[in-house]
Structure formats: C-alpha cells, structure tokens
Amino acid sequence: MTFEPDHNGVSIHPSPNIGARRAGAVIDILVMHYTGMETGDAALELLADPGSQVSAHYVVHVDGNIVQMVPESARAWHAGKGSWRGNTDVNTTSIGIEVVNPGHYLLDYPDFPAGQIDAVMSLCRGILGRHRISPRNVIAHSDLAPGRKVDPGEKFPWDVLAKAGIGQWVDPAVLDGGPAEADGTAKGVSAKQVQEMLAEYGYGIGLTGVFDSQMKTVVREFQRHFRRDRVDGVADWSTVDTLTRLLASAPERVS
What phi and psi, each to the nearest 5 degrees, are found at residue 95? Predict the structure, then answer.
C-alpha cells in the first residue's frame, strides 16, 4: 500500500493498521503521543506490524524527520479506549502524532530536543491548516485516557506549542499560592465543582461529588498537561486556578 503524503517533506512508511472513518465524521481532534520505546525504528516496526493492532498518522523522529504512516483521510488506531468532550470514538475524528521519546519507559525520561519540537510544530501547523481543530482539541493521549496513558508526559512543551498557535495554554498558577484544606485541596472548592470544571473542559469524569480515585487520576493527568511542576493528583489551589483560567479563555477560536 502506498499513498500521497499530506504534509510536505515527509517520508512514507505505510501501516496496514488502518480503517475507514465513520461516514460524515469530521476531523476535529489532534492527539499527541510519545512512542514509549527505546528507538524510533522500533516504534516504526511496531506501528507497521499487523499483529500490533496500533498505528498513527505520523511519527516525528528525534532528528526532526517526519514519517507518515496513515493518510489523514483514514482512521489510524492510536487513541484506544477513552473519551474527549463526550466523544468515545476518538480515532474516528482525530489525527495522531507519535513523537519519538522513550518517555517513562526509561528512568530518566529525556527532554524533547528543540529540533524535534520545531518539526512537531511545523507538522501541527499544517494539520491545523487542513482541518478545523479548536485549540482545546489539541490534546495529550493522557487527556483522553487518564489512568491508562501518561504520554506525551510532563516534559512535553505544551507552552512552546501554544506560543506558536497550537493548542490552549495559560501560565499555571504558582504552587502553594492559595488557601488549602489539611489534605492540600483548595479551600472552599468542592469535589463536585472540580469534577464539573474538568468535565466542561473535556475530560471523561464521573460527577460523584467525592474526591475519589478516578478524580485523583484525572486531576493528575490535567496537571501533567497544564501544571507540570507538581503532578500529584491533588486538586490544590494552583490546579483549580489554572483550570478556571483555561475555561475562561477563548478555546473555540478556529482560524
């Protein structure tokens, strides 16, 4: 199988792990992953293996070279079980980018090189130019699958991407900067309020009104994306303030 590239300057390495998008489906989500493997070549091999049942539209290597594995018009198998803004079939309406990085697979979880991130941003700008994807819908794999996934991880430079017009971002509130209960949670803010705000932003979370294990998991993945200095799952003042300002910003503008 071969196909014409959707983005200039990419090489083609077709994956057989693809399907048709649902009739009438609109591409409106961009999902960022890390490969979680020791090398980019190992990731390509896995994503092209019919037995793996996984694929992605693009792989961005450490040196900035970009490989396209699935046409943007087709459904890649990258998101898996999860949801975003009520959509439980994210693969049908999304494009997936795998950024080569071993992530938490290695104990030292390396930084993403600047040249690699430049390539990621160039690719994202092209995708956003071809599809109407709102800033709030440029997400981490861990955003749609909290508890199951942690990629692309807390070292992924979402703030740098946002400055280039990719995704939504506000500067996170300072740590320990507001009133707190004895357990560290924000004083005067109920579990139900935090759950409702997370759900409004897009996370799949039950509105139980209790600081339960699911809520801690979702808060942790929110922090991994938006408040990276401390990823502990505690709905503290810094986390709640950051979430409040994200909701108050203008995420739905699509150029």
Answer: -120, 135
Write out pLDDT tens, residues 182-218.
888 899 999 999 999 999 999 999 999 999 999 999 9
Q: Is 154 a known active-site residue? A: no
Evaluate whether 174 touches 238 at the Cβ level (below 8 Å): yes
Residues 126 and 184 in one domain: no
Asked if residues 220 and 232 have their Cβ atoms less than 8 Å apart, the reply is yes
Q: Which helix (H) or strand (E) holds 97?
A: strand 94-99
| Number of domains within the chain | 2
Specify burial of residue 146 (Cβ count, 10 A radius: 0-12, 13-18, 19+). Answer: buried
Q: What is the CATH number of the domain that holds 253?
A: 1.10.101.10
- Residue range of the domain that includes 204: 172-255
For residues 45 and 56, give the distance between their C-alpha atoms in angstroms, rounded to a whole number: 12
pLDDT digits (tens, 9 = 90+) for 6-27: 999 999 999 999 999 999 999 9
Q: Does 192 lie in the same domain as 80?
A: no
In a domain, 55, yes or no: yes
Q: Annotated catalytic residue: which of 72, 98, 154, 221?
A: 98
